[in-house]
Amino acid sequence: MAGVNHTDTKQPSIWERVRADFPILDQKVNGYPLIYLDNAATSQKPKAVIDAINHYYTRDNANVHRGIHELSNRASVAYENTRTRAAKFLNARSVDEIVFTRGTTEAINLVAHSWGGKFLKPGDKILLTEMEHHSNIVPWQLIAERTGAKLVYLPITGGDCGVLDLQRVDEWFTREVKIFGCTHISNTLGTVNPAAELCAKARKLGIVTLIDAAQSAGHRPIDVQEIGCDFLCVSSHKMCGPTGIGMLYGRLELLDQMSPYQGGGDMISSVDYFQSAWNKVPHKFEAGTPHIEGVIALHAAMDYLDQVGRDKIAAHDLELSAYAQEKLQELKHIRIFGPERGRAGLVSFLLEDVHAHDVVTAADRRGIAMRGGHHCNQPLMKKLGVESTTRASFYFYNTHAEVDRLVEVLREIQQFFGNA
After folding, report:
1. Whether domain 309-417 has CATH 3.90.1150.10
2. Cα Rg for the chain, rounded, in angstroms?
3. Contact predicate 14/4, CB 8 Å
C-alpha cells in the first residue's frame, strides 16, 4: 500500500486508497457501483491475500509435517511461520498457544468438547450473555446435556440500546460458574463489551473465560494478555483472510490438560491397535491435513492489517458507524438498535412496515450489499421483540459517501412502500 501525504487535502484519504487493494470492489452490481456493507458476515480480500493463495498452489503445494522433500519443507515452514505470526498478532505468550481451526465456530466447539467435556459436572454453571451468536450458545447447550451443567445468561439492559447490564454482574458471577463465554463485539448490536474487565472479575473467582473475537480481531488490536482471557476465538474470513480457517488462542496450561478434539493424522505421537499417545500442544488439536493455503493466506492478511494499522481501523470503525447512525436518524419511521455511542462498525435497524428482507432485496437492486435476518442471534431477537433486522456493517474500505448513498436508497425504499 502506497504512503499517503496527509498534509495534502487534495490527495485521496488512506481509506479511499486501500480500496484499490481489493479487486472485487471495482465492479457494478445491477448497474450500480458495488457498495459492500456486509462485512460482519465476511470481509473482502486484498490482492496480497489472493496472491498468497496463488503462490502456494503454483510453487509450494504439498502436505505439511509429513514429507522431507523440498515442497513439503516449504509448505511446513510457511504453515508454522503463520503460527508465529498469529502469536505476535494476538500477543500470546507462546506459539504453542495458537491452534488452527476452521474458524470461530470450530474453536468454540473445541473448547466446549475438550475442556467442558472433561471438567464440567452436574451442578456447574456455564455463564454466557444474552447477545451471543449461535456459535457461542449451541456448543454449550450440547455439552450441558452431556455433563449435567446448567446454562445461565448475563442479561442486557431493556430497550434497544443493547448493552450488558453491568450493574448486575455480581449476581451472575458466582462460585458455581465454571466458564464464562462472551462476545467481544456483538455482530447484531455493535456493542463493544469490556472484555478485560469481565475476565478480571471472572479470574478472581477461578472462572475460565472464553472471548468470541470474530467481530473484533480484524477491527482493532487484540492483546490476549491484556484482556486476560483463557481462550479467544478468531475467524480469518472476517479479517481479510480466506474462509475455512481460524484460530483458537488457549492458555498453555489449559491446552495441556485438555483431551484431543478429533482423532487422526498428525495429532498423535504413536498409535497401536488398542491405544494411542498424543502429539504435543498445539498439534494435539490439529487432526488430519489442514487448510494449508488458508493458513498461509491468513499470514498475508495479518501482515496487511498491521500495514494499514489496526488502531487506525478501530478509529475509522467508530467514526463511520457514528456518522451512519447520525444520518440514519434523519429518516422517519426507523428503529435503530445498539448503543448510541462507542459502537463498533455496524448499524442494525428496522424501517417501519418494511420487512428486513425487502429492504435488503431493494438495496441490492441498487448495488448495496447488506444483511437482513436474525444474524444467528435468534434468542437476542426475541429479547428485542423482533424477528429480524437490516444490518449495514462497515470495514476500513467503506466511505462516508457510501453511507450517504445508503441513506439515499433507504429513503427511496420508504417512498416506494409509502412510509417516508
Report:
1. yes
2. 22
3. yes
